[in-house]
Amino acid sequence: MAKNAPGKLRVTLIRSTNGKIGKHRETVRGLGLRRMHHTVELMDTPEIRGMIRKIDYLVRVEQA
Q1: CATH assignment of the domain containing 39
Q2: Which tens digit of pLDDT belongs to each residue from 11-35?
Q3: Rounded to the nearest 5°, which phi and psi values hold at 13?
Q4: Count of domains for the chain
Q5: CA triplet 14, 46, 53: central angle to 5 degrees?
Q6: Which structural domain range is residue 44 located in?
Q7: Cα gap 52→8, rounded to integer Å
């Protein structure tokens, strides 16, 4: 029996990173977000969830 593959999340940067904590800016870049209103689809893993939780005030997350 195959292991369930993780789902996908759609992450959108909704607030600017200007003037934010440096580690939070790095986390945004680590998720692949480049500019305001840029959306990326990422695998739903505990590592990605932790990064999103760190910058939850900057992003919007939806199930893909």
Answers
A1: 3.30.1390.20
A2: 999 999 999 999 999 999 999 999 9
A3: -80, 115
A4: 1
A5: 35
A6: 19-63
A7: 13
